[in-house]
Amino acid sequence: xxxxxxxxxxxxxxxxxxxALAACASAPAAPDLxxxxxxxxDAKTQLEYGNPPPPPPGRY
Length: 60
Hints:
- This protein is mostly helical.
- It has 2 helices and no strands.
């Protein structure tokens, strides 16, 4: 009888290990980290500050 209990316990542990591995296998997609587009300047801001300078050529 004790061998049946050991086999059942090992199968239960193997089932938990398989479930944990399956849960880790499907990772969520990476979030989108691109900044939102700039809002256009309104007429009052353009009159007060002038047209904005062009954006820099590149990040690096």
